[in-house]
Amino acid sequence: MPHPLSPGPYPTGFSMAEPIVRTALAEDLGRAGDITTDSIIPADATATARINARKDGRVAGLEAALLAFRLLDPEASFAIERPDGTDVAPGGTIATVYGKARALLTAERTALNLMGRLSGIATATRTLVREVEGTRARIVCTRKTTPGLRVLEKQAVRLGGGFNHRFGLDDAVLIKDNHLAVAGGIRPAVERVRAAIGHMVKVEVEVDTLAQLEELLDLPAALRVDVVLLDNMDPATLRRAVALVDGRLLTEASGNVTLATVRAIAEAGVDMISCGWLTHSAPNLDIGLDM
Asked: Could you give the residue numbers annotated as active site?
């Protein structure tokens, strides 16, 4: 029998998820594998299992979950009823898996950990997106992700109807308050950035006050930035900020974003609302595997 983590004919589209799933399986298998399942279940036994939702939610992480089964049983087959990005009702079947019984039982927790986590993020994002319908605001995530899971968590946000902020430190410039403190202010920080980066890189600056915003807007054209992050401003202040910007920059609101506050923030007229808790504190969606 091949090693549990040996390569196999995986479903397509797993290039970035595969190392994450392999790491999660290896963490669970440890030094001796699944000693419970291997003691009880004959090696040639097969079984069918259904991935079922216990609560209403938006499905995410299904492809990664199915990869966990396929990594342990390259011949495993699937029937998908609710693919990633679709909604499922309590008791609804998301997918059915058929394969070696040992593989299904051993991969169960890894698959459900990934699906519960990612579907929870997608469901929370869906809730915020619905709350701001009718406004111009987009819900976006941040870099406050679980180490090692960023690619999957940011995908889950998109599956929930949200959008991604920068993926990492290397794909956009975000000059925050601590950068300004060390650099000595907005202008010297922006000057150094503009001298260092290429013309294709977007630049965003965080401001805490309307005075800082006015300073940013007064920069000469050669130093003009693309986005302003309006940090921890109440809706009334956000409205004044949006009026000052007057369409010259994209506006992003951040801080104190909850289900109770997001509508008022959106109605202030900002283009984006960034929310860190979508990826660091969204509750898991309850999903089970029923043999």
From this structure: 109, 144, 176, 206, 231
